[in-house]
UniProtKB/TrEMBL annotation:
GO terms for biological process: tRNA processing. It comes from Dothistroma septosporum (strain NZE10 / CBS 128990) (Red band needle blight fungus). Keywords: Metal-binding, tRNA processing, Zinc. It comes from the Eukaryota. PANTHER family: RIBONUCLEASE P PROTEIN SUBUNIT P21, RIBONUCLEASE P SUBUNIT P21. GO terms for molecular function: metal ion binding. This is RNAse P Rpr2/Rpp21 subunit domain-containing protein. One of its GO terms (cellular component) is nucleolar ribonuclease P complex. Belongs to the eukaryotic/archaeal RNase P protein component 4 family.
Amino acid sequence: MAKDKPKSTKGPPNKHLSARITFLQQAALHLAEVQSETASQITSTVTSEHFRYTYNGQSRDSKLQDIADRTFGADRSPPNGLSTHLTLQLRQVALKSQIRLQPSTKHISCKGCHAVLLDGSSCKRYTENLSCGGKQPHADMTVHECTICGTKKRFPANVMRQLRKSKRAMRSGSTTIS
């Protein structure tokens, strides 16, 4: 007689790819946070050097501009190469394996430049209402604007999404149509 096969629990079909996507997301977030902390430390160093060099004959603003250009480059945005690369890899793995990304995963990265969006460092968040004079409260939109490329993402503010049809049917119980 043949041995009975143990019943396997159903899991995601590509568990290793889901784990890879999760790892890439966590690594990109961690690197972006470390880079933003480093950028804030460099900015405080730049301002302290600015006050040290005020007696050299150059104006304060031009000296500060030179230090910022040497530190960050001409565009004065902090370097974010590795976290951007990991975010790009995350999207490519999801596309190639046809795994749907969760909305929270999509919200953390810019669609234009693939930078990780962190409040205050690489992202500006504000609420706008483009209805007639802003009178309609249900038209509030939360806007996430990337400070690197200027891409804007708009999400409805304070709105609960409708449950999926299968979950709505389970919640209301079995309703019979006669």
